[in-house]
Design brief:
Structural class: alpha+beta
Helix content: 25-40%
Strand content: 15-25%
Number of helices: 16
Shape: globular
Radius of gyration: 22 Å
Oligomer: single chain
Bound molecules: flavin-adenine dinucleotide
């Protein structure tokens, strides 16, 4: 206890505000865990910096004292990323929430890391622009960069790596560096911007980001198709991508998830597997007609499209509620979410394999996916205190990952490694692990940055 008080006293010298160097029970608890089944662990103290200089001062102090630091955005990551496994400092970036510059002529914005994607969307909208990376949760842009997040629109626009032009990062000892530039392309040197994207707070703290924006499409239409089976829905999605229909979103929801959504969001979707598809542009009638045809070829039992903004927003908000709706089916449960991605031609086979594997257990899980990217999730609902069901879910997750790797895919399409997927990273990229460790030592020689995550 005395050690913790001493740490807090020292932190107060660099962040001189009692409210921003907090160690009350509720704030420690809020920074101890995430929505996943991973066991929580409290930090010793939570620091809320308001500037790059404060972040640098905290990291300098932490490095000198060997204190672990876990950056914290909105805390919506799903593989234990933000859990301070060794205590220390949870560095909550949500007070760094300024939009520093909006440059419509460059289709770009510069923001602090605590700005959420919806805040950026609100600021860009009046300029006819939007930021399309949308992980469903209203995450911070710093957290999204640190996990290389993607989401429903990635099939058309790409994920965070396609959108970050420039970063300011504070390294473990407090040094501030900048990577990239405001130009949309560069061939200058190693691509350290991409190295920090997806580094999960293990190499440094992102304190500023310059991001690409896009014009809001003139016309947007969404379509909802119900299918007799999940395989038929997957085949239809693979066919749409295969013939090059330029969809902006292509999302799969299985019957269990649709039923959960109807109960949670008051929607009345037919209780069967669905594809939710969106088109954006200037002349989308042809794309819509091709999609309808491909869906009907796979036996779609209904196909409805709408362009009304309220109806569109309702449909996507229902989709974004999928995880919460599933959790509501079993109050008190926590989620284990698989997150494999495979080449699109392998998608129907991979989902069929996952579905059969799920049927062989008595676990309850819904399948959803950004299927246009070949990325899907099975969300198991687990009692976090039931070790047996967690073990069975872990075995099932391992089977799904193994199958994805055999199909030329990856153990995580978007959620990242955290500590829940460390073993799978080793399985997927064992030959690269020594290089990962070397990079970690180079940027963080004393191992204070989010220890126990991302690098096996
Ligand atoms: C309902 C739901 C749906 C989701 N759907 C998707 C999805 O479709 N696609 C997807 O990609 N993810 C999805 N996620 C996961 C999650 O939203 C993303 O991983 C998101 O990018 C995390 O952002 P965050 O601000 O919550 O970061 P946090 O969870 O706070 O942090 C994530 C990681 O980044 C590090 N970090 C945070 N801020 C910084 C910083 N400034 N500098 C350095 N490191 C930092 C943390 O230490 C941690 O390792 C979903 C989550 C939920 C709850």
């Amino acid at each position: 206890m005395a050690v913790v008080e001493d740490l807090r006293e020292r932190l107060l010298r660099v962040v001189p505000d009692e409210r921003r160097v907090a160690n009350g029970d509720s704030v420690l608890e809020q920074h101890a865990g995430d929505l996943s089944y991973h066991a929580p662990h409290r930090p010793d103290v939570v620091v809320f910096p308001e500037s790059t200089a404060e972040v640098a001062a905290v990291l300098e102090l932490a490095d000198a004292t060997g204190t672990p630091v876990v950056p914290f955005g909105a805390g919506t990551s799903l593989e234990g990323h933000v859990i301070p496994l060794e205590g220390g400092i949870s560095l909550d970036l949500t007070r760094m929430q300024a939009i520093l510059a909006l440059r419509p002529a460059d289709l770009a914005a510069t923001v602090q890391p605590g700005v959420t994607r919806s805040q950026l969307e609100q600021a860009a909208g009046p300029h006819g622009l939007w930021f399309p990376v949308d992980p469903g949760a209203d995450a911070t842009l710093g957290g999204m960069a640190a996990t290389n997040a993607s989401g429903t629109t990635t099939v058309r626009y790409g994920g965070m790596r396609a959108h970050v032009l420039e970063l300011e990062v504070v390294l473990a000892g407090g040094q501030v560096i900048r990577t990239g530039s405001r130009a949309v392309k560069t061939s200058a040197g190693y691509n350290l911007t991409n190295l920090f994207l997806g580094s999960e707070g293990t190499l440094g703290v992102i304190t500023e980001l310059t991001l690409r924006l896009h014009p809001i499409p003139d016309e947007i239409v969404v379509a909802r198709a119900a299918f007799p089976s999940i395989d038929a829905a997957c085949r239809a999605a693979a066919a749409m991508i295969g013939v090059g229909v330029p969809v902006t979103r292509c999302e799969l929801l299985d019957a269990l998830t649709i039923a959960a959504l109807n109960a949670f969001s008051g929607t009345t979707f037919e209780a069967s597997p669905h594809l939710f598809v969106e088109f954006g542009g200037t002349s989308i009638d042809g794309d819509l007609a091709t999609t309808r045809e491909l869906a009907l070829d796979e036996g779609a039992t209904s196909f409805e499209s709408e362009s009304d903004p309220t109806a569109r927003a309702k449909m996507w908000s229902a989709r974004h509620n999928a995880l919460m709706a599933s959790l509501a089916l079993s109050p008190g449960s926590k989620a284990m979410t698989t997150d494999v991605a495979v080449p699109i031609s392998e998608l129907p086979g991979a989902i069929e394999h996952a579905r059969r594997a799920l049927e062989e257990t008595d676990l309850r899980g819904g399948v959803v996916g950004h299927v246009g990217d070949g990325n899907f999730h099975v969300a198991f609902l687990l009692d976090p205190d039931d070790a047996d069901s967690i073990e069975r879910a872990e075995r099932l997750n391992a089977r799904i990952v193994e199958d994805a790797l055999e199909r030329g895919g990856t153990c995580t399409g978007e959620h990242g490694i955290g500590f829940g997927k460390l073993a799978y990273l080793e399985r997927e990229h064992g030959d690269l692990v020594p290089f990962y460790r070397g990079l970690k030592r180079l940027f963080d020689p004393n191992g204070i940055m989010n220890p126990g995550k991302a690098v096996p």
